[in-house]
User: What shape does this take?
Amino acid sequence: MAAVTQTRIEPATAELLALLRDPSLKPESIVDEMRCAESVHPCTAEQVVRARQLLARIAAEETATGVGLEPQGSASFAQIAAEVGALPEPLAVALVHAASEGRRSHLLAEIAAIAPKPVAKEAKRELQRLKQRGVQVEEVRSRAEAVMRPVPEAEAPPNLVSSIDAYGDRAVWWTRATKGGVEVVQAVISDVKGVLGVDALSLPRRSFRDFLRKLPRGGMVTTAEVPKDWARHLIAAAEEEGVRNGFSPPPTYVEALRILGPAPLIPPRPPGEEIDLPAEQEAALAQAGGTLYADPLLAAWIPEEEELRAFALKLDEISVSRLYLDDDQKKQAMYQAAEDAAGTYFTPQRRSRYARRLLEMAHVLRSEGRMELARIAVAVSRALPREDGARNPFARGLFVHALEQRFARGREAPAPASSALVRPP
Assistant: This one.
């Protein structure tokens, strides 16, 4: 009778895994199935969506290994394991079985080390099954961790980000208080190449205060405070984007993940979205996007190297061409070339990328007290993804302000923004 009761209470793992793999089923339908089975571990549609995303990553790694590729590295195993452990138990156990089917012993070992005990126990059981079938498996590391008294919220240290440079790079400082001081995970991230560098530090309170005082403020690079879960999300999102583009995090990312823990299951609201933008002003503010380049934080933003070089060659052609009667005609032709270059450069993917950058910079500008520019940045971030986004003055301005530097005589061009990016020591 007990066995029958258990079957009613919790849907079979194989059945749940089949539901997750069925693309015709909506997440809400799976939630309803679990509710009808009177699952003792209810879940939400968002958690089902995340489970499916993780299932796809496990399957992608299995495919990559099958053709002799090293898929994502141990850093991603630790990240996936942490996120699996954060799911409700039935979903987590289903993913454990998926990993076992794909003989992902590295991932199973990570889950066994860091997931909640029921899920970890299932991962160990699957590792043992693989071992009995002759598969070489990873050893499970110790779960021992220091037990600390929770630190009062008032003592929580700030989490910080730097401004974004011309190429989408920035620094993120995720922090947490400990009994003896502050743990800091400082990462340099890119919205194209992912996690470029990461270090985990343990600092006494006094050293951490000195560290904060040395961070850049004002000028071409500055620092802004963000919510803790947003800092964590930025690091996780960068890692996922980098992996998607073929870039792996550095080896030190594994150790950092053990401090960071799992990323938020549902992405938090970006801080820039909290900026008040009156609907009747949005269109006018979006048309002022070109003025953003006058601010020191965006003055060094330029197109990517290949496109910038092609644009410079076009300007050189215009400057020596005999098709134009005077300098005014050449100048007009150069401005037209800037508009044409922007139309080609700002593909839908780039428009979305720059929209995210501008929403992040809106929060940084607000932190600096430049509210008008912050509202312009938000307005442009909403306008860029639209079909006509490449015609926004901000898009054209990326090339125009480089052109105006060419016209300026006796003025030294600004240093590339990447040289000013805060790099963790």
